[in-house]
Amino acid sequence: MVLSRRTFSAIVGTAALGLSLGGSAEMCAASTVPTGPAPGPPRADGRRHTVDFDRYSMIVDGGRIVLWSGEVHPFRLPSPSLWRDVLQKLRAHGYNTVSAYVSWNYHSPAPGAYDFTGVRDLGLFLRTAAEVGLYVILRPGPYINAEVDAGGFPGWLTATQGTARTSDPTYLKYVDEWLTAVNRIAVRHLYTAGTGTIVLYQLENEYADHATEAAGRDYMAHLYRKVRADGVDVPLFHNDKGRNGHWAPSTFDTGGEHGRWLYGFDGYPSPFRTPPDWGYFGPGGTKGGSTASPGTPGFLAEFGGGWFDPWGGAEFDGKGYAESRRTRDAAYERRFYLTNLANGIRIHNVYMTFGGTSWGWLPAPVVYTSYDYGAALDEARQPTAKLVPMHQLGHLLHSVPELAELDRAEGLDVGGGPGLRAYHLVNPTSQAHVHVLRNDTAEERVAAVPLAGTTLRVPVPGLDARLLATGISLGQRTLRHSTAQPMLRLAAGRQDVAAFTGRTGETTETALECPGKPAVTVLEGQAECEYRGGALHVHARLGGLIRVLVDGGGVQRPLLLLLADDETSVRLWRHDAPSGTVLVYGPALLRTAVLRDTAAHLSGDTVEEADLEAWVPRGVTEVVWNGQRVPTHVTRSGSLRAAHRLSGAGPVRLPALTGWRRSAENPESAPDFDDSAWRTADRAASSSTTPVPAGGPVLFADDYGFHYGDVWYRGRFEGAADAETVSFSYVTGTQGLLMAWLDGRPLGTHRMPVPDKKSVRQGTWSATAAFPVAPGKGSHVLSVLVRRMQHDQDGRAEDAHKAGRGLASVTFKGASPRVSWRIQGEGAPDPVRGPLNNGGLYGERNGWHLPGFADGGWEPVALPRDERGQGVVWYRTAFRLAVDPGTDASIGLTLTDDPARAYRAQIFLNGWNMGQYINDVGPQHTFVLPNGVLDTHGENTLALAVLSDGSTPSGPGKVRLTLLGKAAGGVPVTLVDSPRAAT
Ligand code: GAL
C-alpha cells in the first residue's frame, strides 16, 4: 500500500493522540504498512516518490526502510572524482544512506557570492550519491559546527552586525541568501521529484541554548518556512544535542505541518561506559525518546563512530587517530550500534564514516589537518576492520525487512551473570523475534536464551554484542534460530542463499525449519547436520566460508547456507542491480553490478590476488570484471566461478623528493618595505565580541576583510627613544603565534601556550608578548606577523565565532608613541581553490605556492635543513608519478624531524593548501594527498612555507612520499583544475 501524504499524517496524528491518552490498543497494534521487501537502492529515475515515516521507520514508496547512514563531508575531500570512490565503498559495505553537511564558508568568499563549482560542486556530489544508489540526508546549517572554521560560518560573517543563530534580521538576511543558494541545488536532487535521492534535510545544528526561548523558536520557524518556501518537500528535522526532547514535533511553528517534521538527536557516548539506553523509540517505550516524540521513528542524527583529536594529540595521548579507531573498534560498534537498534533507532547515522581532511584553513582551532576521526573508512580511503560490523548489519537490514518494524517484547532472563544484557524485540506482523545480547564485562559470558522448546546457549565475548534472530524468512525456508548473526539473504537463480556470520573460531548452531528431512550436502568447510524436531540443525566452527546446500524436505527451492567468519563476510557482496540481485564473493570490493543480456558486468577492486564467484539471476551466464570477460564455470553452489584468480595490485613506486629550491621571504619586516597599498588600520569600532582596548584603533584582522591564515601589521612611530619594552596583546585560536621585528631586526617570537589536556578544546587564546627594545631616536617601523589560526565554533550560540583574531593592542614601557598601523592579510580569494586556501604570507600573495611559479632563481638546497632564524622560508620541488592506470594508489606526504625544533610548515600541492605541520606539537606527520589534486600520472609541484621561531634550528627535516594503500581497480580520476602562476 502506498500511503498518500494526507493518509500518512492522519496515522501519525492518531498515534500521537493515543499516547497522550495514556497509551492505547491503537499504539500496540501492528502498523498498517505491510512488511515487504525493503525499497531497492534509490536512483534519480525521473519518477515521483513518496517519502514518509511513522513511529517505526521511514516509509519510502510505501515500503519500510531503516536508514543506515554514514557521515561524509564533500568539503573534506577536494577531489570530486573520489566522492564516487568513497560513496561506492559505503554502499558496498551495507550503508544505504550518506549524510552530508554543507559548509557555508566553503561556498561563500564574500556576501552575496556563492560558488558551487569545481571541488565545491554540491550538485555533482548529490548526483554521484544518486548514481551510486544512496539516499542522502542533507545538512546545510546554516550553522554546522563540524570542527570547521567558525562552525561553517563564512569569515566575512564574523565582521557583520547581527547576532548569529537568532532571529536577528541582519543575520537572517544573510542566512536567507545562503539557503536560497544551497536550496537551489538541493531542490534539483530531491527523491520526491525523482531527480535525486535527498530524503531528509536538517535545519541548524544542535541548537540547544535558545531552544526554550521565543527568539530561538522564531529562528527555527523562520528556517522551516524558508526551506519549505524554497521547495524542499522531504521531511525536515533537527539534531537535538542529546535526547532532551528539544525540537520534537509541535514545539515550534511549522505552519501546521506536523507530519513532516522528525525528531532526531545526537549521541557521543564514552566508549568506556555502558552503552546508553535512551528509551525505546516505538510502541511499548516508557521513557525518553518515545515520550519526546511518539509519532516519529527513533532517529540518531549523529552517533559517534570515532572522535576528533586536538593539536598535540591530547585526546589520544599523542597516538593520533589510530587510537581513536582502537577505542571505538569493531566490538564497540557492535555493542553501541546494536544497542541503538535494540532501542528502536531506525535512522542511524555514524559520524564520521569517512572523516577526510580539513585542508587549507578549514579546521576549527580545536583540530589539526587530519579529520580521519578513527572512522570506518580512513582518511586515505582505505577500508578498516571497523567496516566489518557495518557491512554485516547493513546488509542484514536491507535483506530482512522485518527489522524495520520491531516492538519491544517481554524481557527474557538469559542468566550469564551481571553485565550481560539482553534486549528482546518482535515483529508484530511476522512474529520474527530479535535478541540483542550485550556483554559489558571484559570476560566472555554465556547467555541462555529461552526459545520455544529449547534454550540456546550463546557465548558473547567480553565487551562485545551480537544479534540473534528467530522466525525470519530466508526465502522459502524460515530460520528457527541461529547462534550466528544473520547477515544477508537473496534469491539467486533457482535457489535461496542466506549468510550468517560471527567471529573466527566460534562454534555455531543454525536451525532451519524443514517440514520433511532435506538432502544436505556440505560443499565447503566442515559442518555437522542433523534433522530433528522438524528442523535441520547445522553445527559448524566459523572459519573461511562454510557452504551447506539444503534441498527438498517439502520445500521447493534449495537453500545455500553460507557461514562466514568476519574476514570472509567482507568478501561477500550483495548488490541490488535494477534488474536483479547478485551476490559476489572474493574481491576486496564490489563497486557496481549491472545485468545486461546474459552477462553480469561487475566492477570493483582487488588488493591481493582473489577468487571471483557470482550468484546471479537466471539467464545470466557470463561475468565481466572491470570490463574484461572472465571465463567461468557453474559450481555446485549454483554460482559462476572464474576459472582464474583475479590479479592483485601491482607495485607502486614513489620517487624520492629531491631538487629542492629555497627562498626566504618576509620582506615586510624590512623598514623600507613598501606597504602603501596596505589597508590603514584606523577603525574605532569592531564587529568582534572581543573588547577593543581603550584608545584603539581596532587591529582585529576580520574588521579589515582578512579572514584566513596569516596577517601582517606594520606600525610606524617616531621617537620613543626611552622605550624599554614593547608589548603585543594578541588573540588567536589554539597554536597561534606572533613574530615581531623592529626596524628589520627580529624582536622574537611568541607562541600561545601549548594547551594542557583540560583546556585543549578551548578555541580562543589571548596573550601578551613583551620584547625588550631600544629604538633610539627617529622614525621606526614595527613589523608583526600573526598566525591567528582559525575562528572559534559557535556551539553555544553566543557569537563565539566573532572573537577577535590578530593584534588587539600594542603598548610600550617607558614611552607612549603614537603608532600608525597598516594591515595586510590574504589577497583576493583563489577563484578555484577557494577562500580557505590562502592566508596572507608574502609568498602566498605572490603565487609562490602555485605550479609554474618561476623559482629558477631560488637557491638549490638538499633536505634535511638545519638553519636558524626567525621568519618565513619557502621550499619548492617538483616530482613525477607514473602509477599504473589500473591502480588506485593513495599517497601521503610524511614530514619528520627532531621534535625539539620549533617550526611549522604549510603544505601546498599544486597550489592546494593540504594542511599545516607543526613539528614540535604534532601529532600529525603524514598528510593525505588526494588523487585529482595529486597527478598520479604526471608532474606535481610541492611547496612548503616554513615559519621558524628562531629559538631552535629549523627544518624541514625528512620529507617523503608514503604509500597509504593501493588496489587494482579504483574509480576514474579527473584532475582538479590547478591554475598555474601567472607568468
Ligand atoms: C557534534 C556536532 C558535530 C561535530 C561533533 C563532534 O556535537 O553536531 O558537528 O562537531 O559533535 O565531532
UniProtKB/TrEMBL annotation:
Record carries keyword Signal: yes
Pfam families: BetaGal_ABD2 (PF13364), BetaGal_dom3 (PF13363), Glyco_hydro_35 (PF01301)
GO molecular function annotations of the record: beta-galactosidase activity
Region of interest (Disordered), ranges: 658-692
Top-level taxon of the source organism: Bacteria
InterPro entries: Betagal_dom2, Betagal_dom2_sf, BetaGal_dom3, BetaGal_dom3_sf, BetaGal_jelly_roll_dom, Galactose-bd-like_sf, GH, Gly_Hdrlase_35_cat
EC number(s) per entry: 3.2.1.23
Catalytic activity: Hydrolysis of terminal non-reducing beta-D-galactose residues in beta-D-galactosides
Keywords assigned by UniProt, alphabetized: Glycoprotein, Glycosidase, Hydrolase, Signal
Signal in keyword set: yes
Start and end residues of each Beta-galactosidase domain: 405-572
N-terminal signal peptide: 1-25
PANTHER family named in the record: BETA-GALACTOSIDASE RELATED
Family label: Belongs to the glycosyl hydrolase 35 family.
Protein name (Swiss-Prot/TrEMBL): beta-galactosidase
Lineage, highest ranks first: Bacteria, Bacillati, Actinomycetota, Actinomycetes, Kitasatosporales
